[in-house]
Amino acid sequence: MSSNAALALENISVTFAARSADTAAYTAVRDTTLVVESGEFVSVVGPTGCGKSTLLNIAAGLLTPSAGRVTVFGTPLEGLNRKAGYLFQADALMPWMSALDNVAVGLIYRGTRREEAHERAREWLARVGLAAHGHRYPHQLSGGMKKRVALAQTLIMDPQILLMDEPFSALDVQTRQLMENELLDLWSADRKSVVFITHDLEEAISLSDRVVVLSAGPGTHPIGEYPIDLPRPRDVAEIRLTPRFVELHREIWHRMKDEVMKGYVQSQKVP
Amino acid sequence: MKMRIYQAALLLAIFGAWYVLTETEILAPFFFGKPLLVLEKTWEWFASGKIYSHLGITLIETVLAFAVGTILGLLVGLWLALSPTASALLDPYIKAANSMPRVILAPIFAVWFGLGIWSKVALGVTLVFFIVFFNVYQGVKEVSPVVLANARMLGATSRDLLRTVYLPSATSWVFSSLHTAVGMAFVGAVVGEYLGSAAGVGYLILQAEAVFDINTVFAGILVLTAFALVLDGIVSFAEKRLLVWRPAAGETEPL
Contact A82/B150, CB-based, under 8 Å? Predict the structure, then answer.
């Protein structure tokens, strides 16, 4: 295992305890190894319900694996991953705080003075294009705006690792491409290590340096890894039209197709 | 605004019907009183100043019961919601204490705290506490796990979580309970006075009832209702100021 990896999940298995006597324990992830180099943008794709989020929660330290080892920059992970920022799939903003307070709250947790935290939060809101909306509460913002606030909230902490769990899946296609381009812009400024979970292969290819394909659950494990050699900087809308993109897409999709069908059949089963 | 006029008209209509029915003796004035006499009695109370000391005592009891009950409910609610062991241990006792008719505690409180205001405050507290307690408990339990995980990932300590996640989330639940709680605090005060006291609006009502002075009883009810509305209005005002973040149905904002 390379020692300079930003994040290394080694032989991770996750088994959830049975809820009652007549249900079996559920193994969500089986013997999975995932290494993210420093400054690398890795996407993890897989069929629905395959345990992608479980893997991310392991990396965040929100969940302890049943077996396996997690290291962050070579140090075994204990408790929460303090080097990581987490962008959740669902709305995670605090509804009782204005956008500005939401962005500033992490710094305040860390002990930064209120005025300074607000000052920097204002800069970040401007960076995600919401300078004029700091006073608004989350319910007064559109879905895309909320995602921008969440992005600013996470990035203001300057995490070395960015964990993203289908962050744009709830957005419409246009907003989504805008956000993806913005993410690439922000990322290219200081090249954090990114783990980007998605079920959308096009999104995965257009953003990443590497795409990891997971099998259908239960007992998810990686079944393929594809380096993406598309040139940067990229425009997510335009890159989808290049021949190399189409080629990569065809290659990865071919591997994924069977798993998607398995995942679909699996989800039809009555538990 | 138009609705206010209709509301006032409805009030007038009720008083009008009351007036006509008792004047024509379809409803016996002995049992139902006469609205004009009720208003006259109320006016006399305020004009002579006789009511102020009684009303003051009832309001002090109400406000104290409300404040103490709310604070206790908030603290115990937070504590039990965040401590599974304590909540598992105390669960049957909480259920028992909540389902017993707590008004029967009034005689005990009268023995413990005397016939002054504290026995009424104690009764009010037992009524208010459970309403607030259950709402806080619920509020903390219903905190979105994603919001919680997000705050933890941003580096919140358990104190930060309490301050920036649990408390604000519980607050909205507390406020929805405070309207009921204010009414309950009033119930505690008046029932307490009614069961044994030497002052307060409940005491005035009891005195009047003893001599079948039904108009004075109605006047007491009228005064209590008016002040219950005032207290409720204060709660609504505070709610509006503190819960600006909560979406109102169909709210739009001019840009």
Answer: no
Rounded to whole angstroms, the Cα distance separating A101 from A95 reads: 10
**What is the structure's pLDDT at B254?**
47
Which ipTM was obtained for this model? 0.87
Same domain flag for B176 and B198:
yes
Mutate to test the interface with B, among A57, A94, A135, A145 (most CBs of B within 10 A): A94
The residue segments making up the domain with residue A201 are: 7-83+159-268
Q: Touching check for B160 and chain A: CB below 8 Å?
A: yes
Residue A88 lies in a domain: no
Examine the domain organization and report whether A177 and A47 are in the same domain: yes
Distances in Å between the Cα of B20 and the Cα atoms of B13, B28, B39, B146, B219 are 10, 11, 15, 61, 18
Q: What is the pLDDT of residues B181-234, one digit of tens each?
A: 988 898 899 888 888 888 888 888 988 888 888 989 999 999 999 998 999 999
A207 & A77 share domain: yes
Domain presence at residue B253: no
- The answer to whether position B252 is within a domain reads no
Shared domain for B99 and B21, answered yes or no, is no
A→B interface, C-beta within 8 Å: 60, 62, 80, 82, 84-86, 88, 90-98, 105-106, 109-110, 137-140, 153-154, 157
A90 to B171: CB separation less than 8 angstroms, yes or no: no
Kindly tell me the number of DSSP H helices and DSSP E strands found in chain B: 12, 0
The minimum CA-CA distance between A83 and chain B, rounded to whole Å, is: 10
Query: Is A147 in the same domain as A13?
Result: no
In a domain, B254, yes or no: no
**Listed residue (A130, A138, A127) closest to A102, CA to CA:** A138
Residues facing A43 on adjacent strands:
A196, A211
Domain carrying residue B1: 1-32
